[in-house]
Automatic annotation (TrEMBL):
Protein name: PBSX family phage terminase large subunit
Highest taxon of the lineage: Bacteria
Record Pfam families: Terminase_6N (PF03237)
Length: 416
């Protein structure tokens, strides 16, 4: 178990707001938002479990994340060793997603839920809960959150929310943070300096990773809209490089497929821990006046690859017919790309700034799109304009599906 640093003042408030001696004990909910890595999640879940044992026995609670996998990774796995060191006994039914915790003769059940989309609301219907904990509530649909809150019919039940900020018209910001008095909720805003485990060097590194609205959100913890260029730092020509000498340690291809719209394929090579976009294929049927078939685009893919051995081809998940063509030929393993746009843009921005991926000057259409790719101007949603986005999409597919190898792209590849 990692060393636990003394808690900061803000963390202590999150830990003790419900205690009998607390001036905030009569609140029905606590909301902790703010910067990434600000220490809000760990102290919140520890507080949630301590509160549940202080007030209840043989009761049911819900712990919710965007997915059960992310909930286990971000919340459950980090807190279990500490609970055990404090004398709690824990047991998990992995198949049923139930965490059972016992302490000094008391025993409570914690049901784990993923609130990925609107259909998730049905998962929690019919339960009777004494409290609910939401990790990254801003990533969950309103219907799921409200269904979970409606299940808290036990007297004395309370709600616990944490999140990083999104856009200012987001439903959670409008309905909860802007209506704290009506909701009888305590609001705690965190910055990275509220996390004692972060050194000044680490804080400075995080601050270098973001710019524009993402800096204001993830570093300053503000609910702000995004405007202007999606990747403003890529206007600097020094961000592009010459292709390194081949051969590379590994190769992969990312594809944004289009027949009427442009098709963009990127060839990537790994060298000394960096993925380089060394070549690309970009075809615009509107310019040529000729639409290519799936088979013709497949021949272009083969020409781009040449004699190189490719680990995986990542394809726009909506391009079912092109995926089938690649599978039928049996020359490449193919994976449908992960396609969360906003999250993918954030990850791509970080990968570019950290130097985990580099765009070579041979990729002229990528360079052109980087200079033109813009956020939708209303600021009401985090949506880029659907123009000049084809190389941008295939680069994003590469980052979210290949670069993040912890998600295991090889495990879901179609065998040759």
């Amino acid at each position: 178990m990692a060393e636990i640093k003394p808690f900061s003042k803000k963390q202590l408030m999150a830990l003790t707001w419900w205690c009998p001696s607390s001036p905030w004990k009569n609140y029905d909910a606590v909301i902790c938002d703010g910067a990434v890595r600000s220490g809000k999640t760990f102290c919140m879940v520890l507080s949630f479990i301590a509160w549940s044992f202080s007030e209840f026995n043989d009761s049911s609670f819900a712990m919710c994340g965007k997915t059960i996998k992310s909930l286990r990774r971000n919340v459950v796995t980090p807190v279990l060793p500490l609970l055990k060191s404090l004398g709690f006994e824990t047991g998990e039914k992995l198949s049923e997603n139930i965490l059972t915790i016992t302490y000094k003769g008391r025993k409570n059940r914690y049901y784990l839920f993923g609130g990925r989309d609107e259909s998730s609301a049905s998962l929690i219907q019919g339960m009777t809960l004494a409290g609910v904990f939401f990790d990254e509530v801003a990533l969950m649909p309103r219907s799921f959150v409200e269904q979970a809150l409606a299940r808290c019919s036990v007297g004395g039940s309370k709600f616990w929310f944490n999140c990083n900020p999104e856009y200012p018209q987001h439903w959670f910001y409008v309905e909860w943070i802007k209506k704290l008095k009506k909701k009888n909720a305590l609001y705690l805003h965190f910055v990275m300096e509220d996390n004692p485990s972060l050194s000044q060097k680490t804080i400075a590194r995080y601050k270098r990773l973001y710019s524009g609205a993402f800096y204001e959100r993830f570093i300053l913890g503000k609910w702000v809209a995004v405007f202007g260029a999606v990747y403003p730092f890529m206007d600097d020509e020094s961000k592009y490089c010459e292709p390194p000498d081949e051969p590379m340690e590994e190769y992969a291809v990312s594809c944004d497929y289009g027949t009427v719209n442009p098709a963009s394929f990127g060839l990537w090579g790994l060298k000394r821990g960096v993925w380089y976009r060394i070549e690309e294929y970009y075809y615009q049927s509107r310019q040529t006046g000729v639409q290519k078939t799936d088979e013709e685009h497949y021949e272009a893919l083969k020409s781009l690859v040449g004699s190189r051995k490719i680990s995986v081809v990542v394809v726009d998940p909506s391009a079912a017919s092109f995926i089938q063509v690649i599978q039928r030929h049996g020359e490449f393993s193919v994976v449908p790309a992960k396609n969360n746009v906003t999250d993918g843009i954030r990850k791509t921005s970080t990968a570019l700034k950290e130097g985990k991926i580099k765009i070579c000057s041979t990729c002229k259409d990528s360079m052109r799109e980087f200079s033109l790719y813009r956020w939708e101007s209303s600021g009401k949603f985090d949506v880029p304009v659907k123009e000049n986005d084809h190389a941008m999409d295939d680069i994003r597919y590469f980052v979210t599906t290949v670069l993040e190898k912890s998600t295991g792209f090889a495990a879901c590849a179609v065998a040759r």
